[in-house]
Amino acid sequence: GRMAVIAISTIATLFAFAVYHFSGTSRYVSRACNNVETYLPAHVVGQDLALRQLVDAVCEHVTDRPTSSSSSSPLEALGLGSKKSSQAASAAAAAAAAAAAAAAAASASSLQRKPLVISVHGPPGVGKTYTHTLLARALYNTDPAAAGRCPGEGCRGAKVLYGASYLESQRSSQLAAVRDAVLDHLHSTPNPLLVFEEYDKLDCESRALLRQLISHPELTNTTVNKAIVLLESNLGFLELEELLSAAGGDKRKISPEVAESALREVVLREWRRAPCEGLTDTLAFMSTVDLFLPFFPLAREEIARLMEVEVAVYGHRLAPHGAVLVPEPAALTWLVGKVNFAGGEYPLEGAKQVATIAMKYLSRLVRQAQNELAQEQERASKKKGGLLAAVG
């Protein structure tokens, strides 16, 4: 793929993005819902509340809705299709059916013109980026587990925009590039997935474009009804920690409504600190967000589960030599103890340290074991060859 650093604005802006373009599937696969429902929960640890809502929302969104309730004629649907029906009755029925059809079409159009917009919040390292990566694999690949790098080859429909600052001298050369790139993606992709990371840091011009794409796509001659838009942010992690502490660390005691209310409030407060539009417009834009999903801090036992998975990855390297890696509970506890919890209940960097710690303490040991096993197999093979020669 190729990468272009572009600005999301029609005038000079303080926010830039790295936008990645890839070739591959741009339509949701037929089993997208099933993929999302099975693949994401199997890999994301500690975020059951967010995943349940995400799965339900995505499954409803990718399910085709009928545009009409029946293939029969309006008169037949009203029981007036007989040739013996009076002309007046036929005319009245036709008029009523036409009005109903128009109302249904208008309703369907209203329901289908809006993309699915989900705002995802939580501290770094708790699975937000991992989740949208798995979502892309599930939406665009029949077998998500066999997908290549994604977003990337195999799921061209996904586009991720990463926030990055750039120098003032570069503004003029970056004026409307992101607008063109995003619109091109929406125009060329039947079923797009758009991910905006750190969206709470958008400047006014960037917010205006995002608001226009979601609230008024007709102004850009864009059809976004099939799109899924993920807005990701670290904003609200303190509020989520407070909710979790109040629940005694039990995430099951936190309702979706309570978490959503806290996140909506913090986003509104943050956006009102640097108002780019009137309060009415801000509220209208926030109303287009279908869900505010909480990605909570990870508890020690969840870090332990992730460490166990990481250890298993190293264990797979021994399988070709006929060996297995079975860590003792004390060894896993020791590895988890290397994660920086800073004296608190939750790790400062979420799960980011898990892979690094496993690499530090397992990589060399596993390579040594591989070499020893390979040498042992070689000696056994030579010995077997010598015995066969002696017998011969």
UniProtKB/TrEMBL annotation:
Coiled coil: 359-386
One term under GO cellular component: cytoplasm
Recorded superkingdom: Eukaryota
InterPro entries: AAA_22, P-loop_NTPase, Torsin
Presence of the UniProt keyword Coiled coil in the record: yes
Gene3D superfamilies on file: P-loop containing nucleotide triphosphate hydrolases (3.40.50.300)
Name under which the protein is recorded: ORC1/DEAH AAA+ ATPase domain-containing protein
Organism placement in taxonomy: Eukaryota, Viridiplantae, Chlorophyta, core chlorophytes, Chlorophyceae
